[in-house]
User: What shape does this take?
Amino acid sequence: MMRITVLFNRLGPYHHARLNESVARCQLSCIELSGIDQTYQWERIDASKGFQRITLFKDSAAILHSQAEIQSRLETTLCELQPHVVAINGWSECFALSALLWCRRHHVPAIVMSESQAIDFDRSRWKESVKRRVAKQFSSGLVGGTVHADYLHYLGIPREQIFKGYDAVDNQYFANSSDLARHGLKPLRSRLNLPDSYFLASNRFVDKKNIPRLLQAYANYRDRIGKTAWKFVLLGDGALMPKVLKLRGDLKLEDDLLLPGFKQYDEIPLYYGLAKAFIHASTTEQWGLVVNEAMASGLPVLVSNRCGCAPDLVQSGVNGFTFDPYDVEELAGLMMKVSSGECDLTAMGEASRKIIADWGTENFADNLMRAAEAALACAPPRANIFDRALLWGLIHR
Assistant: This one.
């Protein structure tokens, strides 16, 4: 059976769901950089169903360790595992580049798992040229969707070596759990102190999530609709919480904007199940897994057109709408449209579930195998002295 090793910085619920789906198809191992992450507040999950999990730094954040130590531990682990193929999350960090360098030294084909799109950032010519040199050292790619495949091809990987489906959640888990919440409607809504009708958003409180414009759009919507306006539930936490609290006061949203905080994996489907529609307003977002969650939970979605998932997951007027995240009035208008009775919310929610069914963990597992088979079918890219020196320099920059 094919031996595949997958690398992630830290395993969260989404990674477990994808890997657990993949174990029937290959002999799977996963190298996790650290058991502690300052970015995401996930509780540690030990629900590995058949794949081997190795954590390089179990009780400390990777940032506390030198690049040389990370590289040394990773290379020792890879030598012990002896994989046929290595699937690497990205190409910019020391962890990923060290794995790619090991693959080049040991003539093992590498898959890049990427959700980068061309519009994520302003791109400089010289940085893109360096990135192309790195990207071409991978044998195949597993990407989020259409725009990510386009960007990876632009960087030099052939179209036939690129496969979609990297960004997936456990659709069945969110469908079942949100439906249970709906069935326990009244007591659960009371226990969670949730209103009868509300828009839901869930994200970290950081700049790119565009929270000030999102709240301004909601305030504009609320002021137009009046007393019949839906409430707004915003899940999450982060550095911008003081700014969010101030803005709630400035916009006079104290009675309309609920801030329950960050919710763990077992809690969040309850909020999806009781919501009317979901909004994701980021000004830049490589994919947007919360959109997958909301769609699997049977919700209509309003999604920023800067989110990488939007072209593949949002069909205008069918399961939701896209919008310009810088246009407050456009978003306010869509809130009015969705809440006015003009849209068949039940039909849109059902459409969301039908669309997301093709983007679940089964799709991830199938295309991980296709990417591995494609990588093995062609010889690993020849890495000359310059390519290896480039990787070494980027690792130790």
